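Board notes, transcribed. Complex of a protein with calcium ion.
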Amino acid sequence: MELATIKSQAEEDTLTAYLRTLSSTVGYAAGFWIGAINSIDNTGFYWLSTGEPVVYNAFITGQPDFLGSEHCLSWYIVTANTTFGWNNYNCDAELNYVCQSLVRCV
Ligand SMILES: [Ca+2]
C-alpha cells in the first residue's frame, strides 16, 4: 500500500467526489497526504511510487508556496463544499492520507 498518485482530472474528480462524502471529522481544515514530494531546490514535484515528475496538478491558488519545510504534497480541504485542491505542506504534520490500491494481474 502506498500514498495515492493522481495523474488526471478524471482521477481528481473521482477522489474529490468521494472525499466530499466524508464527515468533517475525517479531514476538513487539515487535509490528506497524497504521494508526492518536491525536489530539494523546489523546482518540481515527483511521485513517490515511480519517481516520475508530477505533470497534472490541482494546486489551489497561491500554492505551492514552499514556506519553510513544506516539501510534501497534501490534498487541502476547507469544508465539504468549498476549496478542494493541492497544497505543499510540512512533512511532519499529522494528516489523514489517501492510499493507492494496487491491482496486480497474473
Ligand atoms: Ca503550502
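The domain at 2-100 is CATH 3.10.100.10 (Mannose-Binding Protein A; Chain A). The chain is about 10% helix and 25% strand.
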